Every structure is written in structure tokens, then in C-alpha cells.
Amino acid sequence: MIAKLTGLLDDTGPDWAIIDVNGVGYLVHCSARTLDHLGIRGDRVVVHTEMQVSETDQRLIGFTSGAERNWFRLLTAVQGVGSKVALAILSALTTDELQRACAGGDSAMVARANGVGPKLASRIVNELKDKAGALPVAPGLPGAIALVPPGSASADAVSALQNLGFKPPVAAMAVSRAVEELGEDAGLNDLVRVALKRAAG
């Protein structure tokens, strides 16, 4: 199972990118949001991936973050939602917006995605409402930001920012953005450095 690719952005299309990893080009299908995030040809990129295998096809789906991949898995578990529809939803909404829509029962927001009618949007919201509502969120934030796992470098980074005088919601938001930028495997020092810029900015 291929879970992550780190390499150079070799080429892109309307819904795909080719990532060159040590001379091997991986074709990765992505949402428009992920493609925008990858940058331009020649940029070094990290892509979280999900392998989909069927009788007639096998493909890699790429994401900018583990959170986006988790939502892809939740979406494709809903009857009638394949990888194309899931990517269309992730193109139209951020993971925060999607969580708010599902937790708040806002099917109209989900229906903004291409190829998602009112009926399917309602089914998605109804099936994922409990799962979205159960996701831990940082209190006091305008959007739903998943809290970092205890004992992780992210948790230590949040604690470090709080020790420097930042309020918990601000610290959690800044570290969340740092993780998105650096990847989930980033070390504590790098997370604190980037999170400080985000918190102070």
C-alpha cells in the first residue's frame, strides 16, 4: 500500500498530477484544491495517498493532508459516492467547511460540489453527521479544527506556544496550519518555528 509520496511535481492536468519519485513517475488523481496547493512543475511536494483498486482499474488518489484523506475515506463509504464525486466535494469545500456542513446538517453546502444533487447531499450529511460531530474540535474557534493527538509533536508544539503566552485556540490553529504546511511527520522544532509565524501573523 502506498501511503505517501515525496518527490518533484513533474506535470499536472485538470484532475491529476505526476509526482517524480527518484525517476519513477506516479500518476495521482487529485481535487482541484490539492492541485492548487502542489504549486508549479519542479516543486518538491509531499502527497498523502489512497490506493483504489477495482476489477477494471487501479488508481492513486492524492491529498495535501491526512485530514483530507480521512474525509475522502468517509465520503467514499457513503453509498453512491465514488472517488470522482468525493474529489469534487473536496474541490468545492475545505475539510473544515465539510465538517461544519455535516455536523450542522447543511446539505445545501455539500450540494455546491459538481455532480452532487440535493438527494445525494442529504444522504452524505445524514450518514456523516454523527461522525463529523464526534470529531474533537478546539473550543472557541470559528471553524472546526481537529485537536492534535496527545503525546504527539503537534501536542508538544501547542503546549510550547501556550507557554509563550498564546491562548489555546490560537496555539491549536497555528500548529494545525504548521502541520498542513510541513506534513504530519514534522519534528517539534520545525512545528514550533512555523506555528510561531502563523500565530504572530
Which key terms come to mind for this protein?
Helicase, Ruva Protein, domain 3; alpha+beta; five-stranded mixed beta barrel; globular; OB fold (Dihydrolipoamide Acetyltransferase, E2P)
3D architecture notes:
The protein is an alpha+beta fold and 201 residues long. It folds into 3 domains: 4-63, Nucleic acid-binding proteins (OB fold (Dihydrolipoamide Acetyltransferase, E2P), Beta Barrel), CATH 2.40.50; 66-134, 5' to 3' exonuclease, C-terminal subdomain (DNA polymerase, domain 1); 153-200, Orthogonal Bundle (Helicase, Ruva Protein, domain 3). Helix content is 48%, strand content 19%. It is built from 9 helices and 5 strands. A 5-stranded mixed beta barrel has the order 1-2-3-5-4. Helix 4 (95-103) packs across helix 6 (118-134) and helix 7 packs across helix 8. The radius of gyration is 18 Å and the shape is globular. Residues 134-147 have low confidence and may be disordered.
